[in-house]
Write a structure and sequence with these properties.
single chain; alpha/beta; about 140 residues; 4 helices; six-stranded mixed beta sheet; two-stranded antiparallel sheet; globular
């Protein structure tokens, strides 16, 4: 099993829950460890506090799909350009309503099969995820 999904620091609580049940999920500061299926998850090279323009290319080079709730990425030219230049693939949770941890997890789990299916699409792309839909933003 290899890492397939990177959960951003803005979803750290949810990231730790997901890494506890899936060996293919990592997050900033993840020290690695044995996943629930017995596979060894390596430490994540990204640390909490790393700038988006620095970790986005690193995560994209690793071939990981990004899950974030960064609602401002569309409006920050440097971050948007980093996403496009790195050919990154990102799902962004609809965070307009100040979602709590349960609501964030609900969106991710509800859309997980679609996340897996779409992970094969070539980047760059950014989709906003809600419980009931995915909407392309890039």
């Amino acid at each position: 099993m290899t890492i397939r999904f990177y959960v951003d620091a803005d979803l750290l609580g949810v990231a730790k829950i997901l890494a506890g049940v899936r060996s293919d999920v990592t997050y900033p500061g993840d020290g690695g460890g044995r996943g629930p299926d017995g596979f060894e998850r390596p430490p994540c090279p990204v640390q909490a506090g790393d700038k988006d323009v620095d970790w986005i290319p690193q995560v994209a080079r690793a071939g990981w799909i990004i899950i974030s709730r960064d609602r401002h990425i569309q409006h920050r030219p440097a971050e948007r350009q980093a996403l496009i230049a790195a050919q990154a693939k990102m799902f962004r949770l609809d965070a307009r309503h100040g979602l709590n941890k349960w609501q964030q997890l609900e969106i991710i789990v509800t859309q997980w099969r679609r996340f897996e299916q779409m992970s094969e699409l070539p980047g760059p792309w950014l989709y906003m995820a809600t419980r009931t839909s995915l909407r392309k933003e890039i």
